[in-house]
Amino acid sequence: MRMPDAAALLKKLRSRPLTRTPVLIWFGTCALVGLYLWSGLAEAWRERAFDHVAALGRQPQRHVTVVDIDQATLATFGNWPLSRGVLATLLDQISEAKPALVVLDILIDGPDQRSPAAKARQLAQEL
């Protein structure tokens, strides 16, 4: 069997009335799918879709209380750490609402002012 001449084969292929559009569309689609998978968008969209599907079957819980101790709280009740009495009063007031769950989100701002080391520093400054 005789091998065809490469120049003759290329001439024959070029003479065909094929357009490059399907080939360009195929390569472009492959490039976009590769970029989509490589960029992490597929994972992000999968996670978002899962969150939406998982939320369809659940009813929102009505007895969840989130307590946020922030800068305004610290300005009202003093620096961190809040006294155990203040936290106990806060939890007593929350428990009156009979929540199923209580979440405390506490801002730890700066060093503990009531620690033994802090008390020693205060005494050293006074002397």
Using brief descriptors, characterize the structure shown.
127 residues, mainly alpha, 9% strand
Walk me through what this model shows:
With 127 residues, the chain is mainly α. It contains six helices and two strands; from the N terminus they run αααβααβα. Strands 1-2 form a two-stranded parallel ribbon. It is elongated.
Strand order of the largest sheet: 1-2
**Percent of residues in β-strands:** 5-15%
The level of helicity is: 55-70%
Apparent shape: elongated
Count of β-strands: 2
Q: What secondary-structure arrangement, pairings included, does this model have?
A:
Layout: H1 6-15, H2 21-39, H3 41-56, E1 64-69, H4 71-77, H5 84-95, E2 101-106, H6 116-126
Parallel strand pairs: 1-2
Short description:
With 127 residues, this protein is mainly alpha-helical. It contains 6 helices and 2 strands. The model has no long low-confidence stretch (mean pLDDT 77).
